[in-house]
């Protein structure tokens, strides 16, 4: 079976699974899960917020691993996967910041506050936007790959910074995990099930988007190589 056919089938299968999963997760988040006693309906943003944050972390982990792999092996496929994951990670980080802002407006009466978790998430967003700008500014495929690989490794330092910021610095960001007397979540069982469902559904959508975006990146690179070959033939 040709590679293109296998890729198209993988994209179709992932999308066919991801879309119903996201719809089901939205149903659970907006209808099935109970209202939180203190926050009420606005707490439902939480499920998409957590799922988006998790998938931002996951996408940037893929960027990190592919960047290391590219620097070691000079694999064009790994470089294509890295830039694809970076774009999707920025998308999920934007969704995380947006849902966090709606939460802040409803709970804290402000659209934005310089809470450590929010601030470090914004820094992470800027770092990966800078990653894309570095790629766009570099000339030559190999040089672009090397610069992006190094930057992708450095940028990943912001991921643990975001994750542990609420522990290292006192802030307003809510903590859903109780560590005293054993690790447990401060939520009803229905809320935990809904949160896990949303995380899984958005992860499936992440995989589908990554498959489509990586496929487009390979097509774009192949087209660029063909244009360069034609140009050289015309000039000769």
Polypeptide structure, described:
There is one protein chain. This protein has 236 residues and is an all-alpha fold. It has one domain. The protein is 79% helix and 2% strand. It contains 7 helices and 2 strands. It has a two-stranded antiparallel sheet with strand order 1-2. A hairpin with a 5-residue loop joins strand 1 (177-178) and strand 2. Helix 3 runs antiparallel to helix 4 (116-137). It is globular. The two termini are 37 Å apart. The model is unreliable at 178-183 (pLDDT under 50).
Set down the secondary structure blueprint:
Blueprint lengths: L2 H30 L12 H29 L2 H32 L8 H22 L3 H15 L2 H11 L8 E2 L5 E2 L3 H47 L1
Antiparallel strand pairs: 1-2
Helix pairs in contact: 1-7, 2-3, 2-5, 2-7, 3-4, 3-7, 4-5, 4-6
Overall SS class: mainly alpha
Total count of strands: 2
* Average of per-residue pLDDT values: 87
- How many domains in all? 1
**Unreliable stretches, pLDDT < 50, 5 or more residues?**
178-183
- Provide the helix percentage: over 70%
> Taking strands numbered 1, 2, ... along the chain, how are they ordered across the largest sheet?
1-2
Outline type: globular
The total count of helices amounts to 7
| Helix and strand pattern | HHHHHHEEH
The radius of gyration over CA amounts to: 20 Å
Strand content: under 5%
Main sheet characteristics: 2 strands, antiparallel
* Termini Cα gap: 37 Å
